[in-house]
């Protein structure tokens, strides 16, 4: 009897923790964020959500600075005027918008900030985080007028963080992770094209992050089944698994031009799926 009880204890303890914290089983099983992608960990720890938070899009784009100039115009996406009806689609597209903001700042295209801020406000209202996003949109416009690049990056990062916090308070943790997923997909799409156009092994090393693919694959697996089992989301997960295989180098192996082309090919497929609105 004692052995039977001891075998059940870990499961019972896990269930108690989930019950006491109000976390779903999916949230409790979510993988840890790679250390170098955690933004402002002290603030997140105070919120008590550090182990469930999403990677910072700003941190993802810090690495892309090494790949400048970024060929954003060659793979530009225009969001439809009609808003998506599904909240998961809203979240993925907000990730793309925030990512495009970082790339516009990196390229010095500050004229793109005003329309971007308007789009972010529109999407923020649709997700239920309009008040916070509106404040950031106003700050984005002010920083753009002042040509304050660092403030623009900080505001974009804070936009993600504040929307994420609102979603967690609304018990929509899954959507916070989809925002980050959208941003990473956009970064990979542009970054892999930049390396393909100007290949060196050193530049390619910035793409070979199997730990990030591990995180996002596990994150999708832990989403509510109503989201993770959607055909487009399930296909995104399969492509990320394939990406991990391409990005994993054997001991002594170096990145290759062929590998970068394959990463870019898969990143384009991810982008198409992420913006497909479940179609």
From TrEMBL:
Q: What is this protein called?
A: Uncharacterized protein
Q: Please give the organism.
A: Oceaniferula marina
Upper taxonomic lineage: Bacteria, Pseudomonadati, Verrucomicrobiota, Verrucomicrobiia, Verrucomicrobiales
